[in-house]
Amino acid sequence: SRFQVKHDEL
Amino acid sequence: MNFFRLLGDLSHLASILILLHKIKTTRSCRGLSFKTQALYVAVFITRYLDLTYRWVSLYNFVMKLFFIGSSCATLYLMRYKYCPTHDPSIDTFKIEYLVGPCAILALIFNYKFSVSEVLWSFSIFLESVAILPQLFMLQRTGEAETITTHYLAALGIYRAFYIPNWIYRYFTEGVVDPIAIVAGIAQTGLYLDFFYVYFTKVMQGEKFELPA
């Protein structure tokens, strides 16, 4: 994917 | 974790505790939108499905469980325990108008076209507008109990704190989450009218009343 989004937020 | 995000999370936590405190002490859910609370249950369940397969931290795990548990408990209290104090005739916002467009947006804007990622996007979009039935109800009644306004203020401030958090993370980690950022700014924007009345009236010790 283009964004390395971590999904570590609530 | 940084200072802004911690403040945001604590504000979110506080908002839920204030809400449960209001329901318990007044033994009533008067002035609260059942629809908004039901939307939050949907938001938390669709976003925190990753509890079952992604470990972030103990903090993250406990908070997710708390948000799912407390939102379900709130819904239970409103639906059964204090049911007679809830007046559906003023809680009339059509949530189809929120859920439908959020589902479409999630299908278009997501980080990966998978069930979990589309549901995650959906939860982010839905959270940004989930407060609308509540604000609509407030608009209709024109006034609110002070404790309810504290709840709304804490809930609105929570996402506002995430904005400096994202700026901070961009500079320190190079991380950008455009879906969360756009939705978070929109979410905070929806509260601006409320914040104006809250800070100019309730914080000065006056009752929350909208001009007629």
From TrEMBL, chain B:
<feature type="transmembrane region" description="Helical">
    <location>
        <begin position="119"/>
        <end position="138"/>
    </location>
</feature>
<keyword id="KW-0472">Membrane</keyword>
<dbReference type="GO" id="GO:0006621">
    <property type="term" value="P:protein retention in ER lumen"/>
</dbReference>
<keyword id="KW-1133">Transmembrane helix</keyword>
<keyword id="KW-0931">ER-Golgi transport</keyword>
<dbReference type="GO" id="GO:0005789">
    <property type="term" value="C:endoplasmic reticulum membrane"/>
</dbReference>
<keyword id="KW-0812">Transmembrane</keyword>
<comment type="similarity">
    <text>Belongs to the ERD2 family.</text>
</comment>
<dbReference type="GO" id="GO:0046923">
    <property type="term" value="F:ER retention sequence binding"/>
</dbReference>
<keyword id="KW-0256">Endoplasmic reticulum</keyword>
<dbReference type="GO" id="GO:0015031">
    <property type="term" value="P:protein transport"/>
</dbReference>
<keyword id="KW-0675">Receptor</keyword>
<dbReference type="GO" id="GO:0016192">
    <property type="term" value="P:vesicle-mediated transport"/>
</dbReference>
<feature type="transmembrane region" description="Helical">
    <location>
        <begin position="150"/>
        <end position="167"/>
    </location>
</feature>
<protein>
    <recommendedName>
        <fullName>ER lumen protein-retaining receptor</fullName>
    </recommendedName>
</protein>
<keyword id="KW-0813">Transport</keyword>
<feature type="transmembrane region" description="Helical">
    <location>
        <begin position="179"/>
        <end position="199"/>
    </location>
</feature>
<dbReference type="Pfam" id="PF00810">
    <property type="entry name" value="ER_lumen_recept"/>
</dbReference>
<keyword id="KW-0653">Protein transport</keyword>
<feature type="transmembrane region" description="Helical">
    <location>
        <begin position="55"/>
        <end position="77"/>
    </location>
</feature>
<dbReference type="InterPro" id="IPR000133">
    <property type="entry name" value="ER_ret_rcpt"/>
</dbReference>
<feature type="transmembrane region" description="Helical">
    <location>
        <begin position="97"/>
        <end position="113"/>
    </location>
</feature>
